[in-house]
Design goal:
- By secondary structure, the chain is mainly alpha-helical.
- It folds into 2 domains: 53 residues, Orthogonal Bundle (Arc Repressor Mutant, subunit A), CATH 1.10.10.60; 141 residues, Tetracycline Repressor, domain 2 (Orthogonal Bundle).
- It is built from 10 helices and no strands.
- The termini are far apart.
- The model has no long low-confidence stretch (mean pLDDT 92).
């Protein structure tokens, strides 16, 4: 049985993960180095290697922690709730993640762009199973006439694309908007967009 970490060890491990997140989200796994991470964490490279045996180990630890966070907003969609409100609440949660966790979003995007070598199994198993479950719920809402006809998978994809864009393309968004906070108007726009799309015609 391993000894619990001291406060200093916990602090150093957290500093390494935070530094790794910052470096990986900017340069990706291939473009990052242990020296960069160690410098950002304020530790020596040998000290860093005491906690993580390699750059890959830091990256994997970050992705494993991120996956739980990434699945949570969709898991919270309640089959027994008001359909449109539940979907809009999911949009809200995803946009909030882009605002509060932009580095994590970019880390995830970089992994996907590289072919998801570290999380391919999670995507084809955990993520797919969750999306399949919610797709059934969305189709049941549609069959009951509670939402307009919609492909549930492409609905989820569009929510991902429209919310994660604000984190993954932050520089581009802010270059166009200047000093305006993009999140001020994003939720109003997305709320209107998805509400109009999902509301049955008879209710419009």
């Amino acid at each position: 049985m391993s000894k619990p970490e001291t406060r200093i060890q916990q602090r150093n491990r957290a500093a390494i993960l935070s530094a790794g997140l910052e470096i990986f989200s900017q340069y990706g796994l291939r473009g990052s180095t242990l020296d960069q991470i160690a410098e950002s964490a304020g530790l020596s490279k040998p000290n860093l290697l005491y906690y993580f045996r390699s750059k890959d180990a830091i990256y994997t630890a970050l992705l494993e922690r991120l996956l739980d966070t990434w699945l949570d907003p969709l898991e919270k969609m309640d089959p027994n709730g008001d359909p449109i409100q539940e979907i809009l609440a999911y949009v809200h949660r995803k946009l909030a993640m882009s605002k509060d966790y932009p580095r994590e979003s970019r880390l995830f995007a970089n992994e996907i762009l590289q072919g998801a070598p570290h999380i391919a199994d999670h995507l084809s198993q955990d993520l797919r199973q969750l999306v399949d479950e919610k797709a059934v719920v969305i189709k049941e809402w549609e069959a009951a006439g509670k939402i307009a006809p919609v492909d549930p998978y492409h609905l989820v994809f569009s929510i991902w694309a429209m919310t994660q864009h604000y984190a993954d393309f932050d520089v581009q968004v802010r270059a166009v908007l200047g000093e305006t906070d993009p999140f001020d108007g994003a939720m109003t726009y997305l709320d209107t967009l998805f509400r109009r799309m999902l509301t049955p015609k008879a209710d419009v």
